[in-house]
Specification:
It is a single chain. The chain is an alpha/beta fold. Helix 4 packs parallel to helix 6, helix 7 packs antiparallel against helix 8 and helix 10 packs across helix 11. It contains 12 helices and 8 strands. 37% of the residues lie in helices and 12% in strands. The longest helix has 18 residues. The protein has a 5-stranded mixed beta sheet with strand order 3-2-7-8-4. A 3-stranded mixed beta sheet has the order 1-5-6, with no helix packed on it. The chain has 3 domains: 93 residues, no CATH class; 95 residues, no CATH class; 136 residues, Beta Barrel (Cathepsin D, subunit A, domain 1). GO terms for molecular function: endonuclease activity; nucleotidyltransferase activity. InterPro entries: DUF7083, Peptidase_aspartic_dom_sf, Retrovirus_Pol_polyprotein. Keywords: Endonuclease, Hydrolase, Nuclease, Nucleotidyltransferase, Transferase. This is DUF7083 domain-containing protein.
Length: 390
Amino acid sequence: MFAELVNCMKGMVSESRQPAPAPPTNTAEFVMNSLSTRLPEFVYYPDNGCTFEVWYNRYEDVISKDGATLDEAAKARLIVSKLDAVTYARFTSHILPKRACEISLSDTVATLKDLFGHNTSVFSRRYVYLKTQRNGENLRDYTGLVNQRHDMAEFNDVSPEQMKCLVWICGLSSSEDADIRTRALREMEDNPQTTLKELSAEIQQFLNIRQDAALPERPVSSHINAVDSQNRKRDPPSPCFRCGALHWSEDCPFLNKTCHDCGNSGHKRGFCKNFKTKKKQKPKRKRRTANNVVIASTHVDAASTSRIYRPVQINGKTIRMRLDTGAEVTLLSHADWIAIGRPTLQSPQITLRSANNKPINVRGRYDCSFVIDGQHGRGTCYVADTPSLL
């Protein structure tokens, strides 16, 4: 009995001295399982900078060094296994009719970088980075946002010319510059190496083409009441007070027709208010000589006629001017001249007289742009001591 017990003890001691079998530390399966546990799942979220390139740059050393015993196909399988469901579905759809196991490691990485990279150009990301503002975040979150956008913008690789172009575009912040800003961003995306001089020239060419394209849409400008050395028929400064059409009142087709509303002749129906009082016979309009112009009505002798006023926009300012079909020049009162900003006056080169042969003091003349009844034009205004007359 004792001998059997001794033999049993000897057997147990001999078994305990035998080395335990080593775990499969060098097997591919063990390495795959270990790396799969350590690597997080890749979720594509470009707005926060979560691209595949960022994920792969972070874990490339883990895959290549800790998985040195794995072959290229196993590493490719490991990477594909870490894609989330949406990313995996998009990847496998893109490589059809091939399967993921048929794609090499280098092609797998290149395809994933292309499919799941930034959805905007690097220049656009730099533009967004420079426009970063704090919108209610606490300082820690705002600091993290700045760091994140700086990293996404790849500012370590920006050149001086690219920086100048960025600042130039960021300065186009008004709504009027929206088209220019969009065009400039597109130009920088297409050619990131564009210099500021080249960008400015490209935008200027774009503006010139846009301006030329708008020319057929603009109404033909008429030079209204311009005084020159030759007598020639001019376009009227405003619609006819007899019928509302754009012609001189003496050429009106209703000049000898009778209105059925008021019974008076000389105007179209609906324009009776301009003929409520019987007008005195207008003095015969004198033709002007080279430097002497007669104004048919001024503040002295116009009280007996019905006054018609028109709003006229001169140099961006709206002036209320009285229509005077007898005036051969456009007159601007001294007060209205001050109201439009006191533009520089030139020598008048003419003398003005009223219909009763009284001289009119002319302070000077200047060329101006104007808008009347939606029509654009240029002409010469004479600043005089009279009311503003068309």
